[in-house]
Amino acid sequence: MRYFEKMVGELEDGMMLKEVIRPLGAGRLLRRKMLEQQLIRVNGESAFLTGRVHKGDLVTVDAPHDQPSLLLPEDLNFKVAFEDEHLLIVDKPANMLVHPTAKERTGTLANAVLFAMQIKGEHYPFRPLHRLDRHTSGLLIIAKHKLALERMEKALKRREIKREYIAFASGRIEQAQLTIDAPIGLLADQTVKRGVVPDGRRAITHLKVLQWFPEGRATKVHVSLETGRTHQIRVHLTHLGHYILGDGLYGIANEYGLIRQALHAAILSFEHPFTHHAINLYSPLPDDLISLEKVLSLPLSDEE
After folding, report:
1. Which CATH class is domain 2-62?
2. What confidence score (pLDDT) does residue 192 get?
3. Distance (Å, rounded) from C-alpha 222 to C-alpha 207?
4. Cα separation of 73 and 19, whole Å?
5. 8 Å CB contact between 5 and 59
6. pLDDT above 90 covers what percent of the chain?
7. Residue 293 phi/psi, 5° resolution?
8. In terms of Cα–Cα distance, which of 69, 72, 70 is closest to 112?
9. Of 50, 88, 200, 273, which is least surrounded by CB within 10 A?
10. What's the burial of 186, exposed, middle or buried (CB within 10 Å: 0-12/13-18/19+)?
11. CATH 3.10.290.10: which residues of the chain?
12. Model confidence pLDDT, tens digit, residues 59-82
């Protein structure tokens, strides 16, 4: 893939090469890799960043070669919400790990994406921009090349990517709108479970009530994130006293027949890092959460 191509004009005549390719916005490590692979060229010849260019020179920058993945491709179910040569955005089903672990090397979204890309003759490492818990469904961004990942990471740090969720929380959340600003970290003697702790990393979650269910049994909420801490929504709702239904780690497992926590990544909004078009994606509630919503809407006497 070609990242950059420019014919040097009068304004750039005599400039250092690094100034000409500055609009590329590549980070230091990526520039180093491109230099090592001789992918920054002037008139087809490898060049130094401090070298001078002249009117009529053709400057090109190509993407570094990726190492082949060692993961096993698997034909697993997932939906594609958006795809082009730079990004793949998937609608992940619940109960699927995003990336293999030491104990689970197969059955993950990474294995599924590898299979899908090979069918299309594409080859790139699995580069998720962010994570979703195994039991959380919804939209997830994957970068197809390193420069796309860098640009999306910068946008994420600048809070230019809006990630919005739908959750079903236990009990009745009285406030129609609120913000939770509370630091999150590992709990003492825990390797997975997190909580609000004084020395944790700052975490900010915005909540808006969408529906109160009868008898105060649950609340449907819209959640948006300013930060992206592990288990952030689950921890903040638990801290509020309203764990997510079906969450066996922070609440009660298998409520209402759920085999996962009732949390869905429903909305993604951002500016495309290359085309600069607005990308606005919506993932409707999956069937299990639609069924949950119907059950919660019934009066207790009619639930059975």
Report:
1. alpha beta
2. 92
3. 6
4. 41
5. yes
6. 86
7. -60, -40
8. 72
9. 50
10. middle
11. 2-62
12. 999 999 888 788 899 999 899 999
List residues with catalytic annotation.
133
Report d(CA 166, CA 297) in Å as an integer: 16
Q: What is the pLDDT of residues 226-279, one digit of tens each?
A: 998 999 999 999 999 999 999 999 999 999 999 999 999 999 999 999 999 999
- Residues 158-161: contacts with CB within 8 Å, 24+ apart? 159/226, 160/270, 160/271, 161/129, 161/268, 161/269, 161/270
Strand partners, 185: 195
CB 206 within 8 A of CB 179: yes
Q: How far apart are CA 175 and CA 91, in angstroms?
A: 30
* Residue 165: HSE in the Cβ half-sphere, 13 Å Cα cutoff: 28
Over the stretch 259-274, which tens digit does the pLDDT of each residue have? 999 999 999 999 999 9
State residue 302's pLDDT score: 57
CATH superfamily of 79-302: Pseudouridine synthase (3.30.2350.10)
Q: Where in the chain is the domain with CATH 3.30.2350.10?
A: 79-302
250 contacts 258 by C-beta, under 8 angstroms: no
- DSSP E strands in 127-285: the ranges are 137-143, 162-170, 177-181, 184-186, 194-196, 204-212, 218-225, 263-271, 278-282
